[in-house]
Design goal:
448 residues; mainly alpha; 19 helices; SAM/pointed_sf; SAM; transmembrane helix; sphingolipid metabolism; membrane
Length: 448
């Protein structure tokens, strides 16, 4: 409805300008489209063509009145010194001509401004610009919710792709009898601890539960979820690439890799099992070949950084526990001989650096020009999820996320919907009144 109304306003302004320009099209000799850009010679030509040649020397030459000064002349300026015109008929006619010229200039300005919204006429040409403007506009509750939903969808899709890649690399893993484990400083000097990997996953679940509680109680929970989903999705997408390009031999002889399957239905079924099992051995998910780099290290490192970042600095005990859990989880991964030391080191480095780089950009987003296309090209996810939102560091403020008993009671008996409908109706009335006023003004201007 708003697009149609805006289109009608644009058409009215265009029609008004055309009707006015017909009066002047045969009279204006200047090639300049805007009256405000006229010089004194253009003003002299206009005065001559309007029948005021006897005032050319006085107005354009003696007083150096250009186009901008001309459209700001009033009837009182013509009567009083230094112009002091003494013929009443000339004063009235010249005042009317200047008023028409001023109206023409205003209509021309409206038309030039309307060209920026040519999406209503040529959606293929400027639809991208409209999308960019919409993304960079201020966040509304619905827009913020939509961004969070898209971030979550992005993360879910990436995890599904990662699961499928893990099935593929499982079939490509070298035979451990032909290709023994690679030399590794840590694995060669630390004995195998069979239960260590289960402890690592227990620590990961503990960090995940803490992070879920932080999200639920945080006032800016949608921003936290958006950043968490986008960062985890990006890291796991990078992990898909590193797993595919090089297949390392298994890091330990104790790892029993299942036989390769050639049936695509079985591969898809195995990928879905990995997906909803989150790749955890506690949920009976066993894979081989997904070594460069460690997904478990990525998850615990990201959770640790999110917990320490989005809780108050005074919560030192929680931060210490989070870091201890992160480091011990990494140790237990290596103690279980599930990954090479290189896998764990690369995973920790990439996860921590990506977290810090992303948040450094987010904290200084106000210094990044929204019109700079390089941000949209090099950091598309950052641009999409951070534009229009909370710029800078998110304050660690907490609130009770669940509605009170009174709100639930109003929701149950229907009074909540009645009140919400009244508020929406008031908003629509205000919008309707504004558009009706604009329409009346344009119709009146066209009639005059």
């Amino acid at each position: 409805l708003f697009i149609i109304m805006n289109l009608s306003f644009d058409e009215k302004a265009t029609a008004c300008e055309i009707s006015t320009s017909k009066i002047f099209s045969s009279k204006i000799a200047s090639g300049n489209d805007s009256v405000s850009s006229w010089d004194t010679n253009d003003v002299a030509k206009w005065l001559t063509e309007e029948g005021f040649a006897n005032y050319v020397d006085l107005i354009s030459k003696k007083h150096s009145i250009d186009g901008l000064a001309l459209i700001n002349l009033s009837e009182q300026d013509l009567r009083q010194p230094p112009l002091s015109l003494d013929v009443l008929g000339d004063i009235k006619r010249l005042s009317l001509a200047i008023a028409q010229l001023k109206e023409r200039e205003e209509n021309a300005y409206l038309r030039r401004s309307a060209k920026n919204f040519r999406v209503f006429h040529n959606i293929e040409e400027l639809s991208a610009q409209l999308l960019i403007a919409e993304v960079e506009s201020a966040d509304t509750p619905n827009k913020s919710l939509l961004k969070t939903f898209l971030a979550g969808l992005y993360f879910i899709v990436v995890v599904l792709v990662t699961s499928f890649v893990m099935v593929i690399v499982h079939d490509r893993v070298p035979d451990c009898k032909t290709y023994p484990p690679l030399p590794d400083i840590f694995l060669d000097n630390v004995p195998l601890i069979p239960w260590a990997f289960d402890v690592c996953e227990v620590l990961a679940v503990m960090l995940c539960l803490i992070w879920i509680v932080v999200i639920l109680l945080h006032r800016h929970r949608l921003v936290l979820m958006r950043r968490c989903f986008s960062l985890l999705g990006t890291v796991f997408m990078l992990r898909c690439v590193t797993m595919m390009i090089t297949s390392l031999s298994v890091p330990g002889q104790h790892l029993e890799c299942e036989a390769r399957v050639t049936d695509w239905n079985m591969k898809i079924s195995h990928a879905i099992k990995i997906w909803y099992g989150l790749g955890m051995s506690l949920l009976n998910v066993r894979t081989c070949g997904d070594y460069m780099f460690s997904g478990h290290t990525t998850v615990v490192t990201m959770l640790n950084h999110f917990i320490t970042e989005y809780t108050p600095d005074s919560w030192r005990l929680l931060h210490t526990m989070s870091w201890v859990a992160n480091l011990f989880a990494i140790f237990f991964i290596l103690a279980a001989h599930e990954h090479y030391s290189l896998d764990v080191f690369v995973a920790f480095y990439i996860s921590s650096r990506l977290f810090l780089y992303y948040h450094s950009l987010a904290y200084h987003a106000s210094a990044i020009s929204a019109a700079d296309s390089r941000t949209r090209i090099w950091f598309p996810l950052f641009w999409f999820f951070e534009s229009g939102g909370n710029v800078g560091r998110v304050p660690n403020e907490y609130e009770w996320p669940f509605p009170s008993a009174a709100v639930i009671r109003n929701f149950w008996n229907g009074s909540y919907f009645v009140q919400a409908s009244k508020i929406e109706l008031c908003k629509l009335r205000k919008i309707y009144a504004v558009h009706c006023t604009r329409a009346q003004q344009l119709l009146k201007r066209r009639k005059d």
